[in-house]
Every structure is written in C-alpha cells, then in structure tokens.
Give the backbone structure.
Amino acid sequence: MAELKAVQQDAADAGHRSHVSVKAVWRELSSVVKIGIVNSNLITTFAGMWLAFYFAGEHFLENLHIVFFALFGAALVIAGSCAINNYIDRDIDQYMERTKARPTVTGTVDPRRVLWLGIGLVAIGEMSLLMTTVAAAVVGLIGMVTYVFLYTLWTKRHYTINTVVGSISGAVPPVIGWTAVDPDFHIVPLILFLIMFLWQPPHFLALAMKRCEEYRAAGIPMLPVVHGFAMTKRQIIVWVACLLPLPFYLFSLGVPFLTVATLLNVGWLLLGLWGLKMKDDIKWAKWMFVYSLNYLTILFVAMIIATLW
C-alpha cells in the first residue's frame, strides 16, 4: 500500500511539474512574441477586413477561409517581427523595467532560437497571407521590414523620429485585413492607415514620458529624453489634432459613427490641451496613455457596429 501511494505521489508530482513547465513555456513564448501587441493589432486587422467585406458587398460567413488565412497570417507576421525585435534589443532591454524580465534578457531562452523563431513565424505568416491575395502578403512584408530594419535596427537607437517611423508598421494591420479581401485601391484602407499612423505618436510619446528615465538609461533617443517634456507635450497635441478630420472621410458609415469618432477626437485633444496647464507631467502622460488605448478600441469597434445598422 505504501509503495502504491509513493507511485501515485510521484505521478502527481510529475504531472504538476509538467503543468508548471507548460505554463512557463507559454509565458516565455508570449513575452518573446509580445502577445499583447499581436492581440491589439488583430483587432484593427479584423476591422479592416470586415469593412472590406461590407463595402464589397460580400458576406462574412461565406468567406471564412479568407478570415482565417488573413488573421492567422497577420498574427504570425506580427509575432515574428516582435520576436526578431526582442532578439535585436536584448542588449538595451535590460535597462527598462517593463522589458528586463524578457527571456532574451534573462537568458532562459537562447537568443538564436528567438531569431529563428521570428524568421519562421514571418515566413509561415507570409505564406498564409498569400492564400488570400498577393497584395496582403506584400503589405505584411512592408510592415515587417519597416519594423525590423527601419525602426529597430536604424532609427530607434539614433533619431527622435523613431516613433514616427515605427508608426508605419503599426498602421499596416488594417490594410492587411482590407487587401486580403480587396487588393484594389480604396479610400477606406488609406484612412484606416492614416488613423493608425497618427494615433501612434501620441500613444507612444505618452509612454515615453512615463518611462523617460528608463529610455535615458538604455540610450534610446526618445523625444522627451532629448528635448524634454514641454516639447513632447506640444508634439502630442499636434498629432492628436491631425486626427480630427479623418473620420469625415468615412461618412458612409453614418452619422452615429461620425459623432462617436469626433467626440473621441475632441475629448483627446481637450485632455491634451489641459496638459499644458498641468504641473504633474507624468500624471498627465498616464491619462493620455490610457485614453489612447480606449480610443483605439472604441473607434474600431464603432466602425464594425456602424455597418450592422
């Protein structure tokens, strides 16, 4: 009886270790591919695809194969690009609180494996996008090249304009979604690209203000590090103001959408202008950062809801 209990206990311990091991692997993998970034970008990818079906007069449920290949491909290209970014940035990630625990920094994962994982994910993702249209695969590749080479390898470490360059890749997902359905030119994906492009500088500059000293320690020339908070706040306000006219190019989505989008833009601009009088810059930056996250989610969900009316 004692031997049986010992065997059962060993089996239970082995099962527990296996469960813990799987959780640890998933946690490390999620960190390497930046699963949060992947998930948020899939929202905009889906929105772009949904609007393409709507304007093309196609039925969503009749094109589930396109939905699968587009979302699967976009997710892998984004995840692979993030993994390559982790590989490249492992020398500076150790100086930042939010990145110093990444497996590429702690050494729990071989950096070369992360690099090959990233390359493999991008390759498979591109093949998946090719199952929709060539245009979608090209757009996905442009996003990857911009993020890895123009942003991570070049501007991030040398120029304050790095945020603007990185915004190009971040604006690509809704265009991937659209071109997976309709590869021809249309004003809607262009506006979606511009919305995403203009949204990112105020979003990431607010984050840069919050993490200013970490960026300084890592030697990354973010705008608040090089030119200070006053200049950064003015830049943020200008970028937010540039968003104001864009929803009106989507007038075909209806007055309710235009109302919601305009209120979001005006609210963000007013919060930005309030920051010129606030003495607590970090507190203001936190508010702007949180607002930007809610702004993006509400805006793109509103686009989808507007097509259901």
Remarks:
- Residues 10-18 have pLDDT under 50 and may be disordered.
